[in-house]
Amino acid sequence: MKKIITGSFVCLGLLLFATKVNAADKYPFLLQGNVKEVNTEQNTLTVEIKTTSAMISSLNGEKKDIKLYAHTKIYKTGKRIKVGNVVVGDRVSVKGVVKSDDSLVAKKIVVQDMRFEVRGKIVEVSTSNNQVKVNVARSTYKPRTYKGKDVTFDYDENTIILIRGKVVEEDRLEVDQKIFLKGKIIDSETWYPEKIVTDLAHY
Asked: Is the per-residue pLDDT at 5 higher than 70?
């Protein structure tokens, strides 16, 4: 009888221990957002949250630190990468768990491909704001969404502008010019062209 009681207490202890360990994970989550900081020493990403699963919907619009552990998998264009390869401005999808201390721990992170190639026609140029508005004929990024739409591109001093293969200043951009732009979307809002070509016959 004594052995049976002792065995029962051992089983009960193991059950309580297992329950305690599982309690560390409150519930799973999904979110999408923009990376605001990468801390390789602390192994965290600070993300401005745009959309979430229902259980953490109150975090929409907030900036939260997301912890990464050795088992966290990070992908970009289908390939595994390290946290150091994630950069500020990247759009990420995160799958993970909320811990009992309400911290967010990532199990899988996918860095979304926010690069674009666009062809269209210039409808407006603002050199004072470093912007050019283009009516999109073709886009590699969400082509169905942006075809036929006007999109504003924000360039800077690092943007290369070419006409007939020669580098020119932005004052050479004119309304109704056919145009090709190649670059990336930053913070899921700003279309930043690294290269602008306005003479497509020479591109």
From this structure: no
Q: Please give the share of the chain, as a percent, with pLDDT higher than 70.
A: 87
What CA–CA distances, in Å, run from 131 to 6, 27, 136, 202?
A: 77, 44, 15, 23
CB contact at 8 A, 163 and 199: yes
Tell me: do 184 and 146 sit in the same domain: yes
Distances (CA, A) of 29 to 134, 185, 191, 201: 38, 25, 29, 49
Say yes or no: 65 and 146 in one domain.
Answer: no
Name the DSSP letter for residue 58. Answer: G
Same-domain pairing of 102 and 125: no
The structure's pTM equals 0.64
d(CA 109, CA 88) in angstroms, rounded, equals: 14
Residue carrying structure tokens 């946290």: 83
∠ CA 117-120-121 to the nearest 5 degrees? 145
CATH number at residue 179: 2.40.50.320
